[in-house]
Amino acid sequence: MKNLKFAVLPGDGIGPEVMDVALKVLRTASNKYEFSFDYDFADIGGVAIDRHGKAFPESTFKVCENSDAILFGSVGGPKWESLPPKDQPERAALLPIRKAFSLYANVRPGLLYKELTSLSPLKNERIEAGIDLVCIRELTGGIYFGQPKETRILENGDIQAIDTMVYKKSEIERITEIAISAAQLRGKKLCSVDKANVLETSVLWRKVVTEYVQKNAPEIELSHMYVDNAAMQMARDPNQFDVLLTENMFGDILSDEMAVICGSLGMLASASLGTGKNCHNLPYGLYEPAGGTAPDIAGKNLANPCAQILSAALMLRYSFGLEEAALGIENAVKKAVKDGNQTGDIAQEGVQPIGTSELGAVVIENLNA
Ligand code: NAD
Hints:
Blueprint: E1 2-11, H1 15-33, E2 35-41, H2 46-52, H3 58-65, E3 70-74, H4 89-100, E4 103-112, E5 131-138, E6 146-153, E7 159-164, H5 169-184, E8 189-194, H6 200-216, E9 221-226, H7 227-236, E10 243-246, H8 248-261, E11 269-277, E12 283-289, H9 306-318, H10 323-338, H11 356-368
Helix pairs in contact: 1-9, 1-10, 1-11, 5-6, 7-8, 9-10, 10-11
């Protein structure tokens, strides 16, 4: 029987309450799909500042280092907003943890069930069947990290700011590998997004992606699209995409556009995969909801636990290779929501919203069925 070892970092706001539900769902899944798991809790974000004086303390790093994956809640809230920006939870916890584990691949499913299409700002006739795609974003390269990155005063007194977009073949290949894995588990269709008509990095990106897919996964149907067109197509007909692959800045923008058209942050999970392999020879990864700590509803049993539950399912899929269990959880969530078990953020007309733990209980019931 496979034993999973992961770190549990609930964080702040709604983090602990949605994490509690996700762990209960994992317990049920472990009985049904016959795996076992151990986890260690650790503090991250505001709660870690309060208890340890630092948003990402050494003790938390050690717990993560001794695990095969990280299940993460979210961090931050009004209590810590008056700290200097560099000490605030998001900046002082999220960026360092991504760096510490070289998390270079962000996997974001864009999912909207057909029963919830009224949540989307898109016209319903465009998304009658709901939305279902995955965006794979390179996370540690490109213009956010390239050097030089500075502001200079020129001889004539003018001021010049520089950001540098850099990509190496090896960086493009490793993210393409992740996109291929995602496409193989879905419709085997991959669309790579770039700006190869203008940018050198995009010319290399397109060449490397094409060659890598041809050589390693010829069964994948590969297409290419310029980023400006991709942004339009996402709003026009998101279901033309199965898996989207793109570099850091384009992915930042496109994945947020995708989140908006999918309606509620409470339903969206994400995975950030690292260069390291865990003891199962699968990517080490951090799994977290796409939303934040939702201070407005924290501690009231109002938060939607689905994003956290679906993040746990992604962990089973990508870091532990338990596809059947991951799908089982995803289907249990889908059935719960379709049957009208909805928290306030997704409640459809005529549906009486239920609480965080109640929705979790229905997911567990569906898994057990
Ligand atoms: P937010 O995502 O926390 O909330 C935005 C809106 O979405 C709120 O109305 C909230 O109630 C709702 N929402 C979010 N998740 C929900 C869920 N699971 N169920 C129901 N409703 C949900 O964004 P914000 O208000 O801009 O930020 C709040 C705090 O979270 C800030 O401190 C911010 O820095 C932090 N934050 C953290 C992360 C992270 O840890 N990755 C990401 C974004 C924001």
